[in-house]
Design a protein that fits this description.
heterotetramer, A alpha/beta, B mainly alpha, C mainly alpha, D alpha/beta, B: ABC transporter involved in vitamin B12 uptake, BtuC, two-stranded antiparallel sheet, 4 strands, C: mainly alpha, 13 helices
Chain lengths: ~500, ~325, ~325, ~350
């Protein structure tokens, strides 16, 4: 560890009605990986946006390489050597890899863009990073993981002195994460300052040197990573103690009836001959790496995507599901991994979203019975402890965890017995996560059956009664929670990969 | 192996299919009607295609950004009226009138660009408004009267030779050469210069383009300025081919240009498109417009068929994509 | 200012709607001051004539825009409806009542055509509009053998349909229009259909994954639009007697303008019938006022364009502030 | 923020106010005793109407009356014109001069005008079904006869070619539209007269093309055994490029010997089409002879230059003058009756004649 390369001092930033950053200070040294942690809304992203000039600070100072600086936009920050790898992928799908990497600073020959040189440079860059990507490939043809690698390559190519990684691992497979860590370690050796934002406790322990924790827009404290425990960090983040224990045994009665049976399901490349059973009151974990075909399986069962073959039985009876409409009639509900896109209608209220799946039950004569609608919505707001000023609030104004609860309420209103939770806690902070877990357990106790797709091993081990593992579109294993170990599951999840 | 792939991908290319359609249409009309086979018919088709081609080249840029420019049709008439009025009624030299037409186009393009990129109005709406505004302005420019640009043979009519030159008895459609040149130049601009690259970037993912440090507002505006500039050029082409320019007309021209661009493979959702594709697409529309009367169909049938062809072209694309997904 | 905004009634209608309403009243007052003979019933009746058919078009397109789509075949389809039904009336001797039903049926057919292509075949609405606009013009022209059609005069036996527009000086059409607008508002805000139309305009995939047959509801929006366009045709001929084949697109822009001026978002998901009604009245009043002041229609187009830009920009800014 | 919204919207209202202010000025205040007439033309698109408006203004200047000329953008904007007429009535002028785009659309308004005691004079086109007593005078050309005039002259020039033809020959007619009374009358007048003349010479005639004209001419004949085929084209829309396309289709046919464009736009369309084809001229047999309608700089120079054989012109200038004069007479209590105006045939030879030249507007 060496000298300080970047210091942010007393940064203050307010938006109308919100004090987003309250005199936050933060520093990065050369050759250090500095984790920035905090629940969603703690102000991490805002702080980084202030750093890279996307937001202007109200007060405070940024000292970079000994000089006070103020960037007015992302471009200025880049040019100075402060680069951010964004959480959401910033790719331009219609352009090639090389064109993406050099966007905004193309090599030129006269007025012509020198694509040839860009391809060569990109190739060099990839060689240096030991990544195998063809620079002339169109971006949208790459897997999510490869796209992420391109993003990182792009950041590095800026001759960066400080790189901010904003949740880089969210879309990566286990293998790709290892790849990423190798790159980060290299960068550390080159004496760059690295800021690493993540929710994943395991990663923080592995890769970072120091951890700074923020809460509600304030600075809480900085710890040396190797001197602290996970619980220390979590306590600082939430200000309360949370335990994360794996489930030790299945909570399902051995004679519980099978409510959903899927046989030889085929849908495109990503779902090949998948069969499994789901019992009443069971939480069935679906584990696997990114792109293993779990979401595709769920969507095929739910009728969201077309399937080629396979049989589905609900409560022992064979059913035809060609559309979500059919699935819902069979009592299946689906909570998508991408709430904003597939879960909620942002411009509608909590009440309106709650009844979205079962509106016919709230129609009196020709019209919607708004009172009944609000009553039922209120009922679930209470029972799920959704934080909202009223059921007339637009869901766009709720936080991620509360939006998720509204989606759950939607399926509970419909009285679905089979619920598919696809990455139910993605992008939700630790406190809210716990609430969702409690809720899922409660639902299972009440006799609902749950399929939970998750990429987080701790989540799988903590919640599931039984675990199905998938890899490259095929089911590669099934295991009861009693025997489940991280290593066994990982083994199954990589079985097909040569 | 690689080469074979290239050929194969060409066959899948919308542009290529449309080119085949153009050729097929031409052959079909030629067989069906002996009168269609004449050189003069080709001349006419080209004459009536210039202004649509020019508009289509221009409008390809806003379309690729994921927007649209509905103001080019009424704009064309407006610019032509403004330029023509100065030439005919104010005694300006022809070149000055032409310059005014083009500058007027650039100005309205700039307005569109500002409305869309700076004020964040939906492009459809912003250009719908400028469509109404230019329609009104056009009539005001000429005080409501039709304007005849200098007719062939009179003083100041040299601009008509830009598009068609008479050597001896034969007329040569040199305008077509300009069109090809412009297509090549604008194809270069789209694929190999910053303006084009960023136009595609904006259509692909505007947010990402912004975070890459691109001056998105500027380049987004530029797409509309290009569209306006070409509408200005189209105004000259229109005035050069037709005797009089009538105020109040022009609505609908933009749809022919946009339709041509879309048939030629520009994606309605942005990010994808090529200038040469737009050119070929326009010819589908022009051929239908010119060819159908020759095979004895009354004018009203043309509209029905054009409508159906448009849907057909897009459906083919949609079905192809559906198949690709499977 | 804040007080006004917190007023429950204002909140319900939306602040921008209230502003728009003030603009409408202000405009009327200004026109009356500027042109003394603007005061009085005849001007209002004349403006209403223009407002009726435009209003029905605008109401129709409001549903389509609410789904995030667009339909600019409405003008030509309206003419097609009026021409086909009028030709049946004048050349095939059908009774007026039947003709009126045919008019609505033609609109309905085009609505089904547009809706089916957009919802079930996922053709972009822009393209569908472009195509059906051409087809509507062509069909009308073929059906009437390129002839314009004049509907019967008020005094004749068959002229009773004009009583839908006005009886003497009583603007019956206004009552019908307002009634239809109220029905539309109820459909949009109080029924399942309206809920789904608005929701799918906001996030189609989320609604589909809620187990809703989104295709059906999306198509319904176009069908409702088609029916309203058919009704618009009746009021057009009721006020202006004659329709010509090959036209009608001049009314698209104004109908869409009236709709978005009133706060319906082009992105879908947000629509206000009250806003549409006010928007249409503003356009109609403007066109009457501009004429009364001795200006040409050109000024009307320019001013309408500017008002729409300002109104939509105000909405854009307001929404950005909120988020 | 909301203040900003309000400010923006009020600023729009202010724009309206400003227009209002200048508007009321330009409309002028009506002094006592001043006569005030509203003139509504069909459109401003062609120079025909420019000439008519010039005539109106000239006469108004002479007589010291105020006139206000308006007209829709295009002749197809029927609804706009009705609005303008209603507006004119609401302005309570001393008289209205109307060139109606459509014969039926104005009937209700004419009734209103009569009830309000406002006299109406129709010009250019009449309104046959007008409520009795509402239209006091019609100043219009007999379009049917004017079309026949064109047929007379064109036939005379083509007579020898037709007589010596071994195969069927073709005569084309381009009409900008098939809906307005003046254009259809001219078109039918041409067809009927041409047929009549040809039959007198023992030739059979068939009319093909646009259904309206085929169904409404006196005798459509059959194409199979006709010596002369009259082909009628009507473009899908009234724009000039579609007129040109329609004209090119006919000009391109080998057996075409003559063309008729029934108004200024149609005639200009024929000339536009000829730009490429180069088949028009004044030599019967070798070139196609084209007859036009109305004047304007484009047609005039084509006739002068020998591209177009000749054309029929009306006298819009005189028509405009007469209209105002008639309104003036009515206002002064004089009795008036219908005033027919004439269509004159002109070609390169008689363009300079004193009787023709004043009617050849630019």
């Amino acid at each position: 560890m060496g000298e300080v390369i970047l210091t942010m001092k007393d940064i203050d930033k307010s938006f109308p009605g919100v004090h987003a950053l309250d005199h936050v200070s933060f520093e990065v040294q050369k050759g250090e990986v500095h984790a920035l942690m905090g629940e969603n809304g703690a102000g991490k992203s805002t702080l980084m946006k202030v750093l890279t000039g996307i937001y202007t600070k109200d007060s405070g100072s940024i000292i970079f390489e000994g000089k006070e600086v103020e960037f007015h936009n992302a471009r200025e920050a880049q040019d100075a050597g402060v680069v951010i790898v964004h959480q959401e992928l910033n790719m331009l799908g219609h352009l090639t890899v090389a064109q993406n990497i050099f966007i905004g600073r193309e090599f030129k020959k006269g007025i012509k863009i020198d694509d040839k040189k860009m391809n060569e440079e990109a190739k060099k860059l990839f060689d240096k990073l030991n990544i195998d990507i063809d620079p002339t490939e169109t971006m949208s043809n790459l897997t999510v993981g490869k796209q992420q690698m391109c993003e990182i390559a792009k950041a590095i190519s800026h001759d960066a002195k400080v790189i901010v990684f904003d949740e880089p691992s969210a879309a990566l497979t286990e293998a790709e994460i290892q790849e990423l860590f190798k790159i980060i370690n290299d960068l550390r050796k080159q004496n760059l300052g690295i800021v690493y934002i993540s929710h994943r406790m395991d990663e923080i322990k592995v890769i970072t040197d120091r951890v700074t924790v923020m809460r509600d827009g304030t600075y809480v404290g900085t710890l040396i990573t190797k001197d602290c425990t996970k619980d220390d960090i979590i306590n600082m983040m939430v200000g309360r103690v949370i335990y994360e224990d794996p489930k030790s045994k299945s909570m399902v009665a051995p004679d519980a009836p099978v409510v959903l049976k899927v046989e030889h399901l085929n849908a495109g490349k990503m779902v090949q001959d998948v069969s499994f059973e789901l019992r009443k009151g069971e939480i069935l974990g679906f584990s696997g790496l990114m792109g293993a075909g779990r979401t595709e399986t769920a969507r095929a069962i739910f009728g969201a995507d077309p399937k080629q073959s396979g049989k589905i039985y609900v409560n022992g009876k064979e059913v035809t599901i060609n559309s979500p409409e059919d699935a819902v009639k069979c009592g299946i509900g689906y909570l998508s991994e991408d709430r904003k896109r597939y879960g909620i209608v942002v411009q509608k209220t909590v009440a309106e979203n709650s009844t979205m799946a079962f509106l016919e039950n709230f129609v009196k004569g020709l019209f919607i019975d708004k009172k009944a609608e609000k009553d039922i919505a209120q009922k679930y707001v209470d029972s799920l402890a959704t934080k909202t000023p009223s059921v007339d609030q637009l869901v766009v104004n709720l936080s991620g965890g509360n939006q998720q609860k509204v989606v759950i309420a939607k399926w509970l209103v419909r009285d679905c017995d089979i619920l598919i939770f696809d990455e139910p806690t993605r992008g939700i902070d630790v406190g809210a996560k716990n609430e969702i877990y409690k809720l899922m357990n409660k639902l299972a106790e009440e006799g609902k059956s749950i399929i939970m797709i998750s990429s987080e091993m701790t989540e799988i081990l903590r919640m599931s009664d039984r675990i199905v593992v998938m890899c490259e579109g095929k089911k590669t294993g099934e295991i009861g929670i009693e025997e489940a170990k991280q290593e066994t599951i990982m083994n199954m999840a990589t079985r097909e990969i040569k | 192996m690689n080469k074979k792939n290239n050929v194969l991908s060409k066959f899948n290319n919308q542009k290529f299919i449309v080119l085949l359609v153009v050729i097929a249409l031409f052959i079909f009309f030629s067989i069906m009607s002996p009168n269609f086979r004449k050189y003069t018919t080709v001349l006419s088709i080209l004459d009536y295609s210039y202004y649509i081609i020019l508009m289509a080249i221009g409008v390809t840029f806003p379309l690729i950004t994921g927007g649209v420019d509905l103001s080019i049709g009424t704009g064309l008439i407006c610019y032509s009226l403004a330029g023509g009025y100065l030439i005919v009624h104010c005694g300006w030299p022809t070149w000055a009138g032409m310059l005014v037409s083009v500058l007027f186009g650039v100005l309205i393009g700039l307005l569109n660009g500002c409305l869309v990129s700076l004020m964040n109005l939906p492009p459809f709406l912003a250009t719908l408004c400028t469509c109404m505004i230019t329609r009104g302005l056009g009539s005001l420019c000429s005080k409501g009267f039709g304007i005849p640009w200098p007719t062939a043979g009179t003083e100041g009519s040299w601009f008509r030779n830009i598009f068609k030159i008479t050597v001896g008895e034969t007329k040569y459609p040199i305008g077509f050469i300009w069109m090809i040149l412009l297509v090549i130049v604008m194809g270069f601009v789209l694929n190999h210069t910053k303006i084009g690259r960023y136009t595609i970037a904006i259509g692909s993912n505007k947010e990402a383009a912004m975070l890459s440090g691109i001056n998105v507002k500027f380049y987004h505006t530029m797409a509309y300025v290009i569209s306006g500039f070409f509408a200005g050029l189209a105004a000259i082409a229109y005035s050069a081919v037709f005797a009089t320019v009538q105020p109040g007309s022009g609505a609908g021209f933009e749809l022919e240009a946009i339709g041509g661009a879309i048939i030629g493979g520009v994606s309605a959702s942005g990010g994808v498109g090529s200038i040469s594709g737009s050119l070929i697409g326009v010819f589908v529309i022009c051929l239908l417009k010119t060819g159908l009367p020759y095979i004895g169909l009354q004018a009203n049938w043309q509209q029905i068929i054009t409508g159906l062809v448009l849907i057909g072209a897009v459906l083919v694309d949609i079905l192809k994509k559906k198949k690709a997904v499977k | 200012m804040e007080k006004i905004k917190q007023n429950p009634l204002v909140k319900k209608v939306g602040f921008n709607r209230v502003v728009l309403c003030c603009v409408l009243i202000l405009m009327y007052v200004l026109f009356c001051i500027a042109s003394p003979n603007f005061v009085g019933l005849p001007r209002i009746l004349s403006a209403l004539n223009y407002a009726y058919f435009l209003g029905f078009l605008s109401l129709g397109v409001t549903f389509v825009i609410a789904t995030g789509g667009i339909d600019f075949s409405i003008g030509p389809v309206m003419f097609c409806s009026a021409l086909v039904s009028g030709y049946c009336l004048t050349s095939y001797g059908m009774p007026v009542g039947v003709s009126l039903i045919i008019s609505i049926a033609v609109g309905l057919l085009f609505g089904i055509f547009n809706g089916y292509l957009v919802a079930y075949w996922s053709v972009p609405p822009f393209i569908v509009s472009m195509a059906s606009m051409n087809i509507a013009k062509g069909v009308a022209s073929v059906f009437t053998k390129t002839q314009s059609v004049s509907w019967p005069q008020g005094a004749s036996d068959q002229g009773w349909f004009r009583k839908l527009v006005k009886i003497g000086n009583i603007p019956v059409g206004l009552f019908i229009f307002i009634a239809v607008a109220i029905i539309c508002a109820m459909i949009l805000n109080k029924t399942k259909a309206g809920r789904y139309i608005l929701s799918l305009g906001s996030n189609k995939e989320a609604v589909r994954l809620s187990g809703v047959d989104v295709k059906k509801w999306e198509m319904l929006a176009y069908v409702i639009c088609g029916i309203l366009v058919g009704i618009a045709a009746i009021f057009f001929v009721g006020a202006y007697t004659t329709v010509q084949p090959g036209y009608g697109d001049q009314y698209n822009n104004e109908a869409i303008a009236g709709c978005v001026m009133g706060g319906t978002s082009m992105a879908g998901g947000l629509a206000s019938i009250a806003g549409t009604v006010i928007g249409v009245f503003i356009i109609a009043l403007l066109q009457e006022g501009i004429l009364a002041l001795g200006f040409t229609k050109d000024y009307q187009l320019i001013i309408t364009g500017i008002i729409v830009i300002v109104a939509v920009y105000a909405d854009v800014v307001a929404r950005r502030r909120k988020n | 923020m909301k203040k900003k919204v309000l400010a923006l919207l009020t600023s729009v209202a202010l724009v309206a106010t400003m227009l209002t202010a200048c508007g009321s000025e330009s409309a002028g205040s009506k002094g006592s005793g001043d006569l005030n007439f509203e003139i509504i033309v069909k459109s401003y698109q062609s120079s025909y109407w420019q000439a008519a408006v010039t005539g109106v203004n000239q006469k108004a200047g002479e007589l010291g009356v105020k006139v206000n000329c308006t007209g829709p953008n295009a002749e197809s904007d029927i609804a706009d014109q009705v609005n303008m007429l209603n507006n004119a009535i609401n302005n309570k002028p001393d008289g209205i001069g109307l060139a109606a785009c459509d014969q039926d659309a104005c009937l209700d308004s004419l009734q209103t005008a009569m009830d309000a005691g406002i006299p109406v004079v129709c010009f250019d086109s009449g309104i046959p079904n007008a409520p009795a007593g509402s239209v006091l005078s019609t100043v219009a050309t007999d379009n049917y006869a004017a079309g026949a005039t064109a047929a007379d002259n064109l036939y005379a020039a083509l007579k020898d070619t037709i007589a010596s033809a071994t195969a069927p020959v073709r005569v084309g007619e381009v009409n900008q539209e098939a809906t307005s009374e003046s254009i259809t009358s001219r078109g039918l007048g041409f067809i009927d007269k041409f047929t009549e003349l040809a039959k007198a010479d023992g030739k059979s005639v068939a009319v093909i093309g646009n259904e309206y004209f085929v169904n409404n001419c006196k005798e459509a004949g059959s194409e199979a055994d006709a010596d002369i085929i009259i082909e009628v084209a009507v473009p899908a829309q009234t724009t000039v490029e579609l007129c040109a396309t329609a004209a090119a289709t006919i000009l391109n046919k080998d057996d075409t010997i003559g063309m008729f464009g029934s108004n200024q736009v149609a005639a200009e369309g024929i000339l536009s089409a000829n730009e490429n084809l180069g088949v028009l001229g004044t030599t019967p047999g070798e070139t196609i002879l084209a007859a036009g309608f109305d004047a304007g700089s484009v047609i005039k120079s084509a006739i002068k230059g020998g591209t177009m054989y000749g054309a029929v012109t009306q006298s819009p200038l005189a028509m405009g003058q007469t209209t105002v004069e008639t309104l003036y007479k009515i206002a002064n209590g004089e009795k008036v009756s219908d005033i027919p105006t004439q269509g004159y045939w002109y070609n390169a030879d008689n363009m300079e004649d004193a009787s023709i030249a004043p009617n050849l507007y630019d």
